[in-house]
Design brief:
heterodimer; B: alpha+beta; six-stranded mixed β-barrel; four-stranded antiparallel sheet; 18 helices; elongated
């Protein structure tokens, strides 16, 4: 059974004349262990697809099943639990909280998940080690480079070892060297943790570098 | 989110804007301080009233004095006096009001004067609901210390010293505590006097040692012929005069020397009205024996009645009034004072409440600003798995922490200021009464500390409702895109 199943997923914003269709009947599967790169131009529906997969938004119609869970029917509490345990998210803008050390950033999902305090330090250390930032654990974002900040964000996304890692243009704010390093890191984590990665990107070269499958989106649809 | 994590996150958020936190917390502290201080003063004053005046014992006392015979009008159910002659109803009512008013002020026309004679005294003693009825006997004597040659042996004055005596029972709860030397009466018929240090001072016996040396010595009481009315007038220092014929002399031992009552010292409030001019004290039965040595005196100037319970006071008061006698108790005065205190506390609490309300608005403002500034953070927390409830709890915890800190500081300030207020109030009382005052004007019981803290936390959490709902409703997609 695929880890992710999307069936005729539609997402429309607004009403009447102002209605905009962001997704128009998207159907796709993502198998376990895949590294799927979703490509497409601005406004093609990539970010909407990402928000739906992350359980941050609901489809107007159609079904989304992740790890056997139907997200379109889930309650807000079930969606929160899904976000906490099933997925890890990496954003283009890193979204690190100012004033917190790298270790505290990585520990945040564990705090929300009510992981016992005694277990947190080991998990955080392992995650930081996985992204090669063990020695930067006590540094705040202002003391880290862009690439390091994104690696901290990746560590935060994988600290709970989620089966699905969602990356929304993770290299959008990085130079080419750091961008390659980050996608290589994601690829390595997929192999090491056995997780599935769905990465949105507008850089075909990066997609070719690490993705096991490329999906192109056009005008809210999966391009053939 | 675990409670410890919640506290840590709330503290981190407050620390992020130290000045804003300080100002908002300061507002809560000021409000809490004002409220606890006012409650502390109210508790203190109510306590003073309850302990010194409104005690069960004080409230059970009534003083009965000769009256103006309003028995008839009372028996008519307090009906308005008749106004004869041809006149308009308006004029008749106006005149009735004048007659009632003047009746209260002094002897009205067509009424008889009622004194406390032996029969009245007996009647009063037999009233139902009464524990005891004790006469106030005040008599004016001339004091001298008979020397071996029969002349006054007081050191500096040849002339005998005039002094007003008051009869007090041997088992009085307060007087023995004021003794400077010697002892109080062992029984009600014990011959002897307990003498005020002030009259000894007037006689030229000034030092404590000299006054104490008088204990056991004989003092001569010289009574001049007088009626009960003249003796009553003696209270005001207007008679009987030294030129009246001597009625009798009595040599008795000095049993003790007593001092004046301190300003707020425990006392029977009604009795003190009579005792404040007393120069010496006689045991009740012995005083009565001396009183009866002059003929035609009639009854005592006044009587102190003690009801069996506070519930009996009103009926006794009414019965005594029906006898045409003047009767006074501190019940109404205490009620008026208590009402005044309650009103004062309510008004002050409303003012303090306004301060707290303003502080609450400060919390609302702080949290709304916090929500606006942390929209992206809220979005991130939700993306990482926080529920709406988690986000709401985070902001409530922030408000509660702010309330707790502000409340703790405010309560501590209130407590500290209550000590300062107490010291100032005590000094003012001591300056006014020239006596030390040991009571508390401000009281700060443990429950007030907890109540102040709890109130601040509850107000803060209530103020957090709107910002919290706003935070919980933040759309993570929009927040992360912002």
């Amino acid at each position: 059974m695929p880890l992710v199943e999307l069936r005729d997923v539609e997402k429309r914003y607004g009403r009447g004349a102002a209605e905009v269709a962001a997704l128009r009947g998207v159907t796709m599967d993502v198998e376990r262990g895949e590294f799927v790169a979703v490509l497409g131009r601005s406004g093609s529906g990539k970010s909407t697809l990402m928000n739906l997969l992350a359980g941050l938004d609901r489809p107007t119609s159609g079904t989304i099943r992740v790890d056997g869970r139907d997200l379109s029917q889930a309650t807000p509490a079930e969606l929160a639990a899904y976000r906490a345990r099933t997925i890890g998210v990496v954003f283009q803008q890193f979204h690190l909280l100012p004033g917190r050390t790298a270790a505290e950033q990585v520990a945040l999902p564990l705090v929300l998940d009510e992981t016992p305090p005694g277990e947190r330090a080991a998990l955080v250390a392992a995650a930081l080690d996985a992204v090669g930032l063990s020695r930067r654990a006590t540094h705040v974002p202002a003391e880290l480079s862009g690439g390091e900040q994104q690696r901290v964000a990746v560590a935060r996304a994988v600290v709970r070892k989620p089966p699905l890692l969602l990356c929304d243009e993770p290299t959008g704010n990085l130079d080419s060297v750091n961008a390659e390093a980050v996608v290589d890191l994601l690829s390595g984590l997929r192999a090491r943790l056995g997780c599935t990665v769905v990465m949105i990107t507008h850089e075909p070269d990066l997609a070719d570098r690490v993705a096991s499958r490329r999906v192109r989106m056009e005008d809210g649809r999966i391009a053939p | 989110m675990r409670a410890a994590d919640l506290r840590r996150e709330a503290w981190r958020a407050l620390r992020a804007s130290p000045l804003r936190t300080l100002l908002t917390g300061g507002g809560i502290a000021v409000g809490t301080m004002a409220l606890t201080l006012i409650l502390s003063l109210s508790l203190g004053l109510t306590g003073v009233l309850a302990e010194l005046v409104a005690t069960d014992e004080q409230l059970r006392h009534l003083v009965v004095m000769p009256g103006f015979g309003r028995a008839e009008s009372r028996k008519n159910g307090g009906a308005a006096p008749a106004v004869e002659g041809e006149m308009s109803d308006v004029k008749r009512q106006r005149l009735q009001r004048v007659m009632l008013k003047r009746t209260r002020g002094g002897p009205p026309f067509q009424v008889r004067s009622v004194v406390i004679d032996a029969e009245t005294e007996k009647e009063l003693s037999a009233l139902p609901g009464l524990e005891s009825a004790r006469p106030f006997l005040q008599e004016r004597f001339e004091l001298s210390f008979p020397g071996a040659d029969g002349r006054n042996a007081a050191p500096t004055t040849e002339k005998p010293q005039g002094a007003l005596s008051l009869a007090i029972q041997a088992d009085h709860p307060y007087y023995p505590g004021r003794l400077l030397a010697g002892r109080w009466f062992a029984r009600d018929d014990e011959p002897g006097v307990v003498i005020h240090e002030y009259v000894l001072y007037r006689m030229g016996i000034t030092s404590d040692e000299a006054q104490a040396a008088l204990v056991g010595k004989t003092i001569r009481l010289t009574a001049r012929k007088s009626t009960a009315m003249q003796q009553a007038a003696a209270m005001l220092g207007i008679g009987p005069r030294g030129d009246a014929p001597v009625a009798y002399t009595e040599d008795v031992p000095v049993l003790g020397v007593i001092r004046e009552r301190f300003g707020m010292e425990r006392a029977n409030v009604l009795e003190e009205a009579f005792a404040m001019q007393a120069d010496l004290f006689l045991a009740t039965d012995f005083a009565r024996k001396l009183w009866d040595r002059q003929e035609g005196r009639g009854g005592p100037q006044a009587m102190l009645l003690t009801a069996e319970s506070i519930g009996d006071v009103e009926s006794v008061e009414s019965r005594v009034g029906d006898m045409g006698l003047e009767v006074r108790s501190i019940r109404e005065g205490v009620q008026a004072m208590q009402t005044f205190l309650n009103v004062m506390t309510a008004v002050a609490s409303v003012l303090a409440g306004i301060a707290v309300f303003v502080a609450a608005l400060g919390i609302v403002n702080t949290l709304v600003m916090s929500v606006l500034e942390r929209t992206k953070e809220i979005g991130l927390l939700k993306a990482l798995g926080a529920t709406d409830g988690d986000v709401a709890r985070l902001f409530v915890a922030e408000a509660a922490l702010l309330g707790f800190a502000g409340g703790a500081i405010g309560t501590a300030l209130g407590w500290a200021l209550s000590l300062v207020g107490d010291a100032i109030g005590r000094r003012l009382i001591e300056q006014a009464f020239l006596m030390p005052y040991e009571g508390d004007l401000f009281r700060f019981p443990a429950w007030l500390t907890f109540a102040g803290l709890a109130f601040a936390v509850v107000v803060a959490c209530t103020a957090a409702i709107v910002p919290t709902l706003r935070a919980a409703r933040v759309d993570p997609v929009a927040a992360l895109r912002s």
